[in-house]
Amino acid sequence: MIVKFKKNVKDIQIKHLQDVLNHQNYKTTFIDGDIYKLLVVIGDTSSLETKRLTVYDFVEDVINIQKPYKESLKQEKRKVNVGNVTFNDDNIVLIAGPCSIENDQSLDLLSSQLVKHHTHIIRGGAFKPRTSPYSFQGIGEKGLHILKEINRKYKVPVISEITDVRDIDLFVKYVDIIQVGARNMQNYVLLEELGKINKPILLKRGFVNTIEELLLSAEYILANGNKDVILCERGIRTFENQTRNTLDISAVPVLKKLTNLPVIVDPSHAAGHWEYIESLSLAAIAAGADGLMIEVHENPEFALSDGQQSLKPEKYFNLVEKIKKIAIAIDKKI
């Protein structure tokens, strides 16, 4: 960290700030330059808020060189194992399934087709956080039981979204990956508790959150001991209204530069309409995403939630074939 002083700063003020920082176990070095007077602060400054130092009226600016999301930077390699599936720089992981689990027969029929077309993980919502309290909220614990049966029958990992910290034990029992949705990205109590379990977490970026805020949310999980975190870009809210959200494609290379965690993309929630999913999916893979999460439904017209942003199986299978071609071009495997 570098503290830049105002021109009229007094020696006694510099000494006072050094004493304050030294008392907090930071080492300091004063530089009396020709143009600026600077104080270099050495140590783990991730917990030292820059705003606290700007309280001093003799401080002009504070530059924090250390990133606040230090735990994600400690990971040696971008790798998370889920059963026989690996999220890393060499693979493209495909996650597909309905927005909401409606019944066991429909999910079984769909899953039997998906696993034959390079789908590595089956998704399905059991508890659905909806904007309107009158919208379909999911079938609850019964949906998790159905997912567990899909896992047993097809030997494929399953993922579902958690909405309540009280349901953690339930999710640990029935799913292979716990998804934290956009609305809960900053539910810090939930994130801390998920950090204490031995289960991979897929953390979605909130639709009004910055990349740094996403990484700091991941930090809550990592700092509590759970190192198996997968980040998911799912679109952010902008002034554009032709799509449900705006897919931040640039987030993929930026996140992969700033952290060593796997990064995937959810084009379904970004687009909000099935017609755009293919283009956004191909763009995400070309940008370096480690995987995709795509909503697929046998009969989107009759889906109980988000049918308009779900692909029919045939369109999804065609998309997978196109993804294969891009994978070859960027030296990845599906």
Automatic annotation (TrEMBL):
Keywords: Transferase
Keyword set includes Transferase: yes
GO molecular function, one term: 3-deoxy-7-phosphoheptulonate synthase activity
Pfam family, one: DAHP_snth_FXD
Enzyme class: transferase
SUPFAM superfamilies with a match to the protein in the record: Aldolase
EC code(s) of this entry: 2.5.1.54
Highest taxon above the source species: Bacteria
Domain DAHP synthetase I/KDSA positions: 88-325
Sequence intervals crossing the membrane: none
Domain DAHP synthase ferredoxin-like span(s) in chain numbering: 1-67
Protein name: 3-deoxy-7-phosphoheptulonate synthase
Encoding gene (name): aroF
